[in-house]
Amino acid sequence: MCQSIFCPKDTILLIMIKISDAMGECMRETEAEFLRDYDRSSYLAPLITVDAAIFTFHDDELLILLTQRSEHPERGKWALPGGFVDESKDMCLEDTVQRKLCEKTGVNAPYIEQLMSVGNHHRDARGWSVTIAYTALVAFQACQSFVENVSEARWMAYNEALVMELAFDHLDILQAARERLKQKALYSMIPAYALSDTFTLSELQKFLEVLIDKPIQKKSFRRRVEQANLVEEVGLRAAEGKGRPSMTYRLKDGARDFTFIRNLDT
């Protein structure tokens, strides 16, 4: 009696049929079924945080808001305000930033901008981490009373912060944020968001000079601002002592997105 022989070709064919059947089962699975059974905890994921370089201008000086860490890692060191994304509260990264800023300053920042993202295995001792860094501008007067009552938060001169041993890689982020703010000062009105709601052109000019590290010719600066039609008069502010009152201004809608054709230093 002849015995049937199952040749290698038959084996390959049977395997292909089984694979095809399995693929068919997968294709019949709906997205809802896939998501229902998907287990996020089965995959390693990095830590996700946001950090914000919050600038303001006061007494002719550029200030940065720092917070002192109360927990490990890096406990006791000063750091940029930030924290973890809260999926139950935050619909997007900007929500996370504003939530953390409000916790530290008591106000919503009138201007925030995503600066950079940094991720690696060594920036945080807790493990592989990613931070999305932002720059933010707030008026000193709007939040100073709140900051004074938050023991772990403090406004510091930018140059003072540069020589501190900040937590994590926050010194690198701070320097990158400072450079971004300098570039913004050259071609936009964005720095005005670090001033009070109403400001004088002299205050704005002084802040821009601090940011670009050089003096600005007064007449050409005022002509530049007036021709752009980005500010509107609010009223006179009484001068200290015997000086003349100064006209105050506020930004118009649309100033945030405006860019000058020529840079300020050209």
Keywords:
266 residues, seven-stranded mixed beta sheet, NUDIX domain-containing protein, WH_DNA-bd_sf, 3 domains, two-stranded antiparallel sheet, Arc Repressor Mutant, subunit A, alpha+beta, Nucleoside Triphosphate Pyrophosphohydrolase
Describe this structure in words.
This protein is of the alpha+beta class and 266 residues long. The protein folds into three domains: 34 residues; 140 residues, Nucleoside Triphosphate Pyrophosphohydrolase (Alpha-Beta Complex); 72 residues, Orthogonal Bundle (Arc Repressor Mutant, subunit A). 36% of the residues lie in helices and 23% in strands. It is built from eight helices and nine strands. Strands 1, 2, 3, 4, 5, 6 and 7 form a seven-stranded mixed β-sheet that branches. Strands 8-9 form a two-stranded antiparallel ribbon. A hairpin with an 8-residue loop joins strand 5 and strand 6. The radius of gyration is 28 Å and the shape is elongated. It holds the Pfam family NUDIX. This is NUDIX domain-containing protein. InterPro entries: NUDIX_hydrolase-like_dom_sf, NUDIX_hydrolase_dom, WH-like_DNA-bd_sf, WH_DNA-bd_sf, WHD_NrtR. It comes from Vibrio rhizosphaerae.
H and E string: HHEEEEHEEHEHHHHEE
Helix percent reads 25-40%
Which class of secondary structure composition applies to the elements? alpha+beta
Give a quick account of the main beta sheet: strands, pairing sense, barrel closure. Answer: 7 strands, mixed
Identify the CATH homologous superfamily of the largest domain.
Nucleoside Triphosphate Pyrophosphohydrolase
